[in-house]
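hiii, so i know i said id send this last week but things got crazy w the move. better late than never?? heres the sequnce for the chain we talked about at the cafe, plus the structure i predicted for it. fair warning i was half asleep when i ran it
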Amino acid sequence: MPRRWTRPDLDGLLEKQYGLVRRDQVLDGLPDALTKGALRWRLERGVWQTVLPAVYATHGGPLSREQRAFASLLYAGESAQLTGPAALQLHAVRSAPADDLVHVLIPDRRRLSPARFAAVSRTHRLDPRATAIGRMAVVSPARAVADTVRMVPGLDPNAARALVVESLQRRLTTLDALQDELRDGPKRGSLLLRAALSEVEQGLRGSPLTQLRELCASNPALPKVRWQPALIGPDGEALPTPDGWIADTAIALEIIAPDLDPSPEAWTRRLRRQQAFTEYGVLVLTFTANELRIDPAAVLATIVRAYLERARAGVRHTVRLA
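okay and structure toks below
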């Protein structure tokens, strides 16, 4: 009687890994593992395909963008992080440039050659602010912007500037975080990044945020204001990033841009943003760019009055810097 081969229970693993598996996972990592012969049979008949060395897709068609990214992480192995345009796309950055390669960072103690679409870079500074997006380790927006400008060949100054501007306007990161990446990152490719940051910084000097910063700094009654900080609640939940943050009285300062999106969807997002703050006892003070330009004294008076009232009331909160 011919021997009956049992199919390994791959469903759970494939669901988590976008239909991709690594050789060691299917040969050794499952309770009902495949034999080498069974794996070879699937590959020879095109049921599965090799997409990177020892990384297989369990179908014969083209890979999606997410599959290419996850396959690169499987190939790169432990501690790997996605960076560059692939990371920007996962952070939903619209101005992310097209790139045939998926850039992956690995610790510098390891040795691994690039393969096909997986561009592997060794680094002594993996991103401590990396996060999980779609079960993939993805560097922070600041690191993704900086690495994209440094890594993508032929990127023009306008494209580099667009990346910096979008990441700042959408509050995905801050100018300070980008400056930190410029200072701490590799020198290779840094001239383009430096030029983009310099140009954007010069443009920000006359921005409403700069006006608000100078206004708050001019009044000795106010404590130090944190600008565009990353905040988390007591449960570890990330909060929206305000333009300004007065920590001891939990006051968030927000500026409404003149070109604010008037759509119902944008209004809903702003409402949810407000609710996220109030849930943790944060007072949100919102100003328009016109208010800052036309009547800065009234804006400052509103901030000072709110701060003194909450300070006298002994407001307590559990929001902290990330």
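btw The first strand starts at residue 20 and ends at 22. thought thatd interest u
miss u guys!!
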